[in-house]
Every structure is written in structure tokens, then in C-alpha cells.
Amino acid sequence: MGFCTSPGRWVNGHWVSSSPETPREANLQALAEMGFWNRDLNATLLARYSDDLNRVVAELVQ
């Protein structure tokens, strides 16, 4: 039963892959480049907003 076969970890109930080829990891890297360093919060928001980077940034700058 391998639910999560890619390398990564659980963050606030969501699986975050550490593979650089995933959209979530690309978005996490983009957020870090923008100065948003809280990876756990960023991963949670990306999961909440279905990896919509614009919505995550809007939430972070409120």
C-alpha cells in the first residue's frame, strides 16, 4: 500500500514532496525566492488553495 512513494514529509496533514519536479515544490521554491521563508505555512496554504500561487501570495501579504 504505498500511499506516498515520493520522498517528502507530512506538513499539517498534507504530503509535501521533496522532489523538485512537482508543482508544489516549484511553488515552495518560488515563495522562498519572494522572501516567504516559512515552508510549513507555505505548504499548508498551497494545499488549501490547490497550488494557486497568486492566492497564496495574496494570503501571505494580508
From TrEMBL:
Phylogenetic classification of the source organism: Eukaryota, Metazoa, Ecdysozoa, Arthropoda, Hexapoda
SUPFAM superfamilies associated with the record: UBA-like (SSF46934)
Record's protein name: Nbr1-like C-terminal UBA domain-containing protein
Domain Nbr1-like C-terminal UBA as annotated: residue spans: 25-61
InterPro entries for the chain: UBA-like_sf, UBA_Nbr1_C
Natural source organism: Dendroctonus ponderosae
Pfam families xrefs: UBA_NBR1_C
